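Model it.
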Amino acid sequence: MSNGDALTGKVGKVVYGNVSFHDDVLGDLTIPLNKIKSMHTATVFATGLTTQKLKKKNIAEQVPVGTIKLENETLSVLLPENKVREFPVKDISFMLEEAAYTRELHNQSDFFYGWNGTVTLGAALVSATNSSQTYTGGVGLVRAIPTIAGLPAGSKTILNLSGTYGLAKAPEIISGGTVYQTESVTKTNILHGDLEYDKFFSPMVFGLVNGRADHNFGSGLELQHAYGAGIGWAILRTPQNDLSFRTSLQYEQQLFYNGITSGLGTPSENLVSASIGETWSRVFPHNIKFNESVSLNPTFNVIQAYSGVASAGFVFPLYKRLNFSVMNTDNYLGNPPEGFRRNSFQFTTGVTYTLK
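Modeled.
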């Protein structure tokens, strides 16, 4: 180390300027690369640079694979036949063991590898003359292969699930012959789920297939589900800043509650629609995360049946993998049944657990 300490153990990988290291005495450590004065490995590693623009057709020539020696802020990759390639430490993007590098590059992993995301839960209970209960939950998962930034983009799988359920009861209150409160029951039930698979053709362009489903008692919507395919553009793709746009054509069906007719005079609609949207995630200092998305769904055969959803929120670190989250979501339906509002706005807070 730069302070004179010496550690003996196993180097795991280098990503985002940090070395994963298992010390024989201290256990698992994460060490900034710029704090290391010298490092030697017996294991073979693949090394990539921030100055490289890696593509699948040139990655074999651009990324050297060999044992590692780091001295005086210079990293040397010792290749077969006594060849050496040297790089400034400040330019290192990643360093992976050969087996992990091959797995990442060729997607040689099972379905459960590479997932990261969050699970959020929240609740509010009131027990008095009037009683109420509200429960919220959400799951947001992303599986990007390769998982290491700097390698050519391969594929991405996105899964989102969310739900809000609420029930409020107010009894009739009569005092001295005066009615102070009439009996009422108010119900909230909003469910959403979507799944998308992206396949990258280039660092910025990808094809996609997706599906989504919504249930919204507040808009008289029993079920809205859609399935489609399209294309997307990854404008930014870094661990700290990820921005993408996507558009797709899809089949969509809206089913309203039995006995309730929509503003179009029918309890259900089969639709040809499009989905136009963007997603943005940003990591701020102190690991504060911001997530935002907008999706607009115009329809072609029944113009009034358009819909949309927008959400934005922050995740604040609390302790290790526990976080506190704040989220706003607005769902909009162009053709709700008579008596129902077109939009449903939700403000939710909860405890969030980060999977990775």
